[in-house]
Amino acid sequence: MSDQAKKKIKFIDGGICAPAGFTASGENCGIRKNKSKNDIALIFSDVPGSCAAVYTTNQVKGAPLTVTKANIADGKAQAIICNSGNANTCNADGEYIARTMCELTGKALGISPKDVVVASTGVIGQPLHIEPIAAGIPELVKKLSKDGSAEAAAGIMTTDTYRKEVAVEFELGGKKCRIGGIAKGSGMIHPNMATMLVFITSDVAVTAEMLKKALSEDVKNTFNMLSIDGDTSTNDMAVVLANGCAGNALIDCDGPDFKTFMKALNTVTVWLCRNIAADGEGATKLLECIVTGARSKKQAQTVAKSVVCSSLLKAAMFGADANWGRVLCAIGYSGADVNVGTIAVAFKSAAGTVKVCENGAGIPFSEEEAKAVLSEKEIEILVDLGSGKVRSTAWGCDLTYDYVRINGDYRT
Prior knowledge:
Layout: H1 3-8, E1 10-11, E2 22-27, E3 40-55, H2 63-71, E4 76-86, H3 94-109, E5 116-123, H4 130-142, H5 149-155, E6 164-172, E7 175-184, E8 197-202, H6 208-221, E9 237-242, H7 256-278, E10 286-294, H8 297-309, H9 311-318, H10 325-332, E11 344-349, E12 352-358, E13 361-362, H11 367-374, E14 378-384, E15 390-397, H12 401-408
Parallel strand pairs: 4-5, 8-9, 10-14
Antiparallel strand pairs: 1-6, 2-3, 3-4, 3-9, 6-7, 7-8, 10-15, 11-12, 11-14, 12-13
Helix pairs in contact: 2-3, 3-4, 6-7, 8-10
């Protein structure tokens, strides 16, 4: 993104409620045993809007995805209901539960159940009872508020350690426009889309076709470039709901306004990617692999994803060990056609930059300096393939003892 474009897009408060016409809420309705944690969230638009979504590539899919896909086949939606603590996957009555959640939400809001997006996250294969949800939805509707983004963000969390919510403001044709987003994602995250729950709201007037195009193009460079542990979830998706309340001229084709919207959307999704990666289960460090000098986008993306997915490299980053050979190893088995003799690698953080490899071979470097660089909370792994001018970025995290602890007793 150019510096000029960045100046036009600014971060603001409010999360998913920042765009005009949106409210949200969250509460504990009794799905979780821990009553101090929210386990259900609601997002509502005052008017129906254009809606687009992308879904997990796992063949075992949660029932909410099937119901949501059918509901937004017309490109429209007005509300999003999501529970946490139970994934509603591999249940005989899963689709009935998901449809009933839409019906109850629609009735409480006075809208069609077909205009409701439904989502679930949590343990797979556990029965999900509709009774606590049915009892909780009326109160959830009562709590809808312009200040409700944080409660909704908390309501979709599983092993996340903090809420992930963001919003940006920009202009289209002199009209103030906004995009907000919340996300959950800590483990069971691996390309390709979707591998988390992401709910994005906007007050931009844009057709469902152009909204779908924007989201589909964006995820190629954002959520599809994010990996925590190599496991692709059964339930997760990214949804964008745009209600047109900003009053801008309708975006129905490519052009300057669509490009600005895409840049603003990308600002939100990159922020969410970085924060999901930083909050990976047990993680202590955000890893960002930046590949340059590639011949093609496919080559750059393949290499970047392979590096952030390497368990050995992730473990080395946890230990602040500049074992750069693991970077070369990951590049070598990535499947990308590379010239090893032109590859350079460096590690960078707030503590500085240390070059460790040039022309595919090791070079002298200070282990003490490298240790300091890799002891920071955010680490860039810089890979120059030396073969072209294309670049790509992937996000991940280190692999720690706590990842095993968290997933060793996740269900019990």
